[in-house]
Amino acid sequence: MLFHPATMALNLASLANVAALVLAATFGVRILRHWNIASGSEGQLRLERQTYLVSTLLGIVLAAELVSLFLFVYTADRLSVMFVGAMCAVGTLNASVYGFPALGLKIACFFAAAVWLLMNAVDNRGWDYPMIRAKYGVLLLLLPLFAAAAAVQVAFFADLKGDVLVSCCSKLFTAGGSGVSAGMATLPPMETLTALGIVLAVVATMAWPARRSPRWALAYAAVCAVLFAVAIAAVVSAVSPYIYEHPHHHCPFCLLKAEYGYIGYALYLPLFGGVALGLGVAPIQAFRTRESLALVVPAASRGLVGASVALLLVFALVVTATIALSGLRLT
Amino acid sequence: MIRLTEVTKVFNQGRHNEHHAVKGVTLGIEDGRVTVLKGPSGSGKTTLLTLIGCLARPTSGRVHHGGRDISGLPERFLTEIRRRTFGFVFQRFNLIHGVSVLENVMLPAYPLGDDHGALRERALTLLERLGLDGKGEAKAEWLSGGEAQRVAIARALINDPQVIIADEPTANLDTALSRAFLTIIGELKAEGRTVILTSHDPLVCEADVVDRVVAMRDGRLTERELVEA
Question: What ipTM was reported for this prediction?
Answer without folding.
Answer: 0.78
